[in-house]
Amino acid sequence: MATAEHHVGHHSVTGIDNRKLLMWIFLGSECLFFGALISTYLIFKADIPAPPISFIEAHTHVENGHEVVTGWFPVDRVIDDVYINEDGTFREVEFAGVLDIPITSQSTFVLLMSSVTMVLAVYGAQHGRLLSMKVWLLATILLGLIFLGYQVYEFRLFGSEGLTLETNQFGASFFVLTGFHGTHVFVGVLILASLLLASFRRSGLGPEAGFHVETAGLYWHFVDIVWIVIFTIIYLIPA
Amino acid sequence: MATVAGTMAAPTAEGVVWSWLTTVDHKRIGVLYGVSAFIFFLIGGVEALLIRAQLAVPNGGVIDPELYNQLFTMHALTMIFLAVMPLGAAFFNFMIPLMIGARDVAFPRLNALSYWIFLAGGLVLTSSFFLGGAPDTGWFAYAPISGGTYSGSGMDYYVIGLLILGLSSLAAALNFAVTIINMRAPGLTMMRMPIFVWMTLIVAFLLILALPVLTVALVQLLFDRQFTTSFFLPSGGGDPILWQHLFWIFGHPEVYILILPAMGIVSEVLPTFSRKPLFGYAAMVFAGVAIGFLGWAVWSHHMFTTGLGAVPRVVFATSTMIIGVPTGIKIFNWLSTMWGGSIRFTTAMYFSVSFIALFTIGGISGVMHASPPVDQQQQDTYFIVAHLHYVLVGGAIVGIFSGLYYWWPKMTGRFLSETLGKWNFWLMFIGLNMTFFPMHFLGVAGMPRRIYTYDEGLGWEFWNMFASVGALILAVGVLVFVINVARTMRQPKTAGDNPWDGSTLEWATSSPPPEHDFDAIPEVRARDPLWYDRDHGLSQPEGDPDEHIHMPPPSYYPLILALGVLMLGVGPLSHLAVTALGVPVIIYAIWGWVLEPTE
Amino acid sequence: MSHGGSHAPHAQEQHGLTPRQYIGLGLALTVITIVELGASLWVDLGDLLIPVLIVLSAVKFIAVVAFFMHLYYEPQLLTRVFVGSFVLATGVLIALLALFWTDITDLLNGV
Ligand code: HEM
Ligand SMILES: [Cu+2]
User: Is domain B21-495 in CATH 1.20.210.10, yes or no?
Assistant: First the structure.
């Protein structure tokens, strides 16, 4: 385009495209965002050795025809492995962590694979392979959705076990941290789906396809690395 | 002459309004920011006058205690988030592209979006007065009084309003960071940039990095209030001190966000009216950067009385005192800039020179309560109020007024009256010193801040009355400015391109600048480019009369997107259905935005 | 799509890994994750566990940023912006934790 250099937004002293620069700076901002959320989580974790302050998770034994009870019990009613009922009787309980690491490992794997498919979509877009781009974009979207499915499952599981936002500080900081991460994944899915839809327009994605997919990819990978950190801090590092 | 609108019909009233609603021109957006922020500044001023009226005499009963709490809270929020920050943004918008020799910012529509979201946030915050009461916890909203038990719906407006305003500032900061890094004219290397541009860049990064921490704190507060979590509520196992930490991790960088633009303005005004390049340019830049870094390492000086422990107290006291060093470097550089210069005492210069003195007073009281034992006496007294008003009024506001007088000819083509300007200056100068200096005495005499009233015989009567009279004088000073503007805007445009003989690029184009800013992109051969050209008999490139300069077309999508954001925010304050309706509005606006041709 | 034009995406040379290498990297990251799980669940590393986990996840983090996000091939400025922000975030986090983990007796002694 002959007059291109007079268009606002094209000029670049550093040679870095304005939009890519904006995305990287924005990701820097996101570091502080998740940093603050993770700090909150860790501060409460230090304050209150998990399982957290007021409730403790336990599976009761089935013994002599007694019912099976699984749930969160007020911590002040638990002495060693004995739970004291309201009426003063007590029963033996076996403590279990609330986190289901095998399940979360699967979802972690899913998100990791979505990073691979994402980078392949970027590669396709940059090398003019429109079909490959579309396929890998679709794969990334699906993997993102599967990850979200795992998260919904996990949240509901915790809910059914009695761990909610208001149960204790663990519940509050856990749900807000992972919930915001999930929201980021969801926004990423929306962005990628928009790009996929746009790529079916008559003009394809326009001459800048590679560029937009690449910038969206930066965001997507960032959400993945946040999960790498969250997974280590919440799931792998023991109480 | 390069033109944009070939055939323009005579502007109708409707057309004018529409053109402002859809503008993506950085200068117009700057004007929008400036006018809105000034209106909020006046509102904040009225709030302050009511506070001073209540405190003028012992056992005053001008307003009732509930309203009083709302007023001091809203006064701070209005002045910080709706006046000083957006007045800074007004200068960023208008001046930065001109000062770096660009035709607009990197993302013109994003720029418009920032403004409209700012307006939405300002309206949410201010409307709380009429919708069940404004926030009343003080601007830092300490837990647990900010929780649902002790405060009403005003706090929800606080949370939502600040979240919306944060979004606006984040968008603007990203835009200006990219603009400054990427859109500089040929030859304008980083170390040739005007100091105002440098300070803007630092402010942008401070916003980008500090706002997310406030966002997290606000979201957690929102959850505490609406979804029964207990992040900050001790009754549920939470920790009120956590709020203080998160708030001040944002809060201290925020005070530099407020002052650095003013420091940038002063660093432009002093050299121009001393006819001398800025003394110690590199030191000035590095002092600014150092302040930006150190600003992250001092936040707990707001929490010396919370039982931090000995080691943290020593660490934060030390870092706070160290931050006085780069600040001092700046002060000495400004003084040295004037030393030996041929000084012209214009109104802008009056304001800038007084900035140095007033800011220094605030800096000194700051270093005083950097010492924990001293702070233990001063915390939550009027001494702190004196400190923060010397840096914010004597510093930020005085710097902004200096910028208004300095750049008014560039922005409008008209000079503000110097005679009225001097009245404006002296009234404000006397008024603010009368108001705020005695507050040091009151603080040391034990008067707590945010107190509704006080008894006779405590020895506070005289200085309180004195301060209230000072506030009135200050207000008259601001009024004189308004009169000055009203009169000036009826005068013919007599300012030439470079009426003050300034050295930076904004003076290389006409006053006011054309829509495309520069007929030809300027060339920079040295620091202070226009003085270099002048001294070496060089000139800036001429525009090509046949060239068609393509500017981005107006767009209404920023306005719609901001409306969607407003709806998202209003939902939690009224009915969640509004939020649900906001989502499609946002999606529509984003799609329209992306698909809109900008060529 | 809004800024068509002057920066044709294919104009500058494309750096980066090949698809095969990307997949290989993905597999390597999976292996690291399995090692992390092993360290956390199946073997007893004692005090070494946390440092080991931090190092392993840092390796994953850096690999994704450097190669999937191309940062390794980009101008230095981007690295500085991102690493700077990350270091700041980490610093704030560490400082906060240090503040909250300060010995409470400090406070009780009234200092
Ligand atoms: C040499 C530089 C400075 C130092 C050493 C300093 C130090 C301090 C300290 C220690 C406090 C806490 C006092 C207390 O609450 O007990 C404080 C409060 C405050 N400072 Fe500064 N300060 C400096 C500059 C500034 C600047 C430039 C601004 C803003 C433009 C500013 C705005 C404030 C505000 C608004 C408060 C009160 C916050 C509140 O409690 O509401 N300060 N300062
Ligand atoms: Cu501070």
Answer: yes
